[in-house]
Design brief:
135 residues, mainly alpha, 74% helix, membrane, transmembrane helix
Length: 135
Amino acid sequence: MSSSQPSTSLALVLLVGGRALAGSSALLSPLNMTPLFGLSITPSASFLSRLFGSRDLLLALGSWFDVQGLARGQFVRASGVAARTVITLGMLIDAVDVVSGLVDYNSGTLSQRGAVIGAGGAAALVGLAVSVLSQ
């Protein structure tokens, strides 16, 4: 794994774009995202969706932009080590999401649709992160 800035590869664009899309959708329209994952709309679903959304949106921003610069309102491309750290943390979170989805699917608390979209989507993000980090 190199410490240089990740190149602007298709994998990086898909990783950041997918996170940003999922995150902003969950933040802005949480009750529309809930059924997409095969989950029931409950009073707490909006809050849980927004928790997911904020996490994914911030991981997208931190994978592309310098986190300290963002805190100052500056949109500067992330340096190699900082971007790779955020991408690695996101990949680890996604790996836990894959395991969580499989556990819930096997216990009957997550539908097949939820497992495919949730755990499958997380697995795809793990693959994209591995691709980006191997460049």
